[in-house]
Amino acid sequence: MNAPNRFELYVLGDDEKSLEITDDTKIPNAATIKVVKQDHTMANMIRAQLLANEHILFAGYKVPHPLEPYFLLKVQTDGTITPTQAFRTACQLLIAQLDSLQREFKREFDLQAINDVDSNQAMASRAGAYGDYGVGPRAGDYADF
Q1: pTM as predicted
Q2: Alpha helices in the chain (DSSP H)
Q3: Which phi and psi (to 5°) does residue 23 adopt?
Q4: Residue-wise pLDDT tens digits, 34-63
């Protein structure tokens, strides 16, 4: 099979840099950023975060080949900040958003676990004439017409 080993898609080699920034000589206030061992998911999130910045004139990315685990991100600013500063700020904001999402996700699952415990205790306390719940018909059961 021609596909690379899966670990090669996300583990950096000893001599590999995760990021390479090249200033564009033809377009003012522009740079090309090569991000290694990442794919469309990361590229699109960074691009969207960059475009939310009012100083960004252009932000786009491409993945040159599906078997090559990197993407090229092109950023052009209005000159008030450099493309490198814009990229760094976008990454910091993205990390903060993902951290917030993770905290909210964990909080919701913790609340769900508490609600599950409460509902199981409530079911056990009103087991009724059949003894243990799960034996015999219950209100709302499919047999309850």
Answers
A1: 0.72
A2: 40-51, 83-125
A3: -70, 140
A4: 999 998 999 999 999 999 999 999 999 999
